[in-house]
Design brief:
globular, about 110 residues, alpha/beta
Length: about 110
């Protein structure tokens, strides 16, 4: 995994959107993620996060994801995860008390 490469992209599937996060994501990527989150909300579909390429996040990224979740809840939509979260991300979410808040059934949502 190339942790120096950061990528925030999404795809639109028939019944949901997939948000792919790659690399070490931090405050310098928060505005790009915020803009992407706004686009995702416009589709009015559930969103699944693909963490498979993510190496690390910080509080700014978590805050944007929480805001995305709030926007989706207002639309009766959900934010969940595609597959298992990589251990470094899982540990960070757990330490921050966000493991269940971001909608991961494997982490007690």
């Amino acid at each position: 995994m190339d942790t120096d490469r950061v990528q925030i992209v999404f795809s639109v599937e028939p019944d949901h959107c997939i948000l792919r996060l790659e690399g070490v994501l931090g405050v310098s990527n928060a505005e790009e993620l915020r803009q992407t989150a706004l686009q995702l909300c416009a589709y009015r579909k559930d969103v699944k996060v693909d963490w498979s390429g993510a190496a690390q996040i910080d509080a700014a990224i978590a805050q944007v994801l929480l805001s995305l979740r709030a926007g989706l809840v207002e639309q009766n939509r959900s934010l969940s995860h595609c597959e298992t979260i990589p251990p470094p991300i899982q540990n960070w979410l757990s330490t921050a008390g966000l493991s269940g808040v971001l909608g991961n059934p494997e982490l007690g949502a």
